[in-house]
Amino acid sequence: MGEDRQSKLKPLPRIVRLRDAPAYLGMNRNLFNAEVRPVLTELPIGAQGIGFDRLELDAWVDDYVACNRRPGRKGAIKWDANLGQVLSAEVGFGISKNGSKAGFFDEALARINFKKPK
Q: 47 in a domain, yes or no?
């Protein structure tokens, strides 16, 4: 089975044709032509074909990620950190471990009952 799988794997071509380049970057053709294509070196393929160096496409993505990276959202759930809590099967009664602030319920109730003046 391993030999069949190895024979089906093919290396990525170094030259990516114009028709395949937008899909390689995960974007549509119009965005590729407007944003990416002007900064790449076009390589002629045959009489009419155009291609791009795959490594240059990868470098563009690296540059794009470096310039447009955003920090994670505040309050985003980190599943690995909470894994122990999620998998806990303990059921108990008594004091909440949540540690919510005293008066939190009163504040929420006041917001719900607040009526805007007309």
A: yes
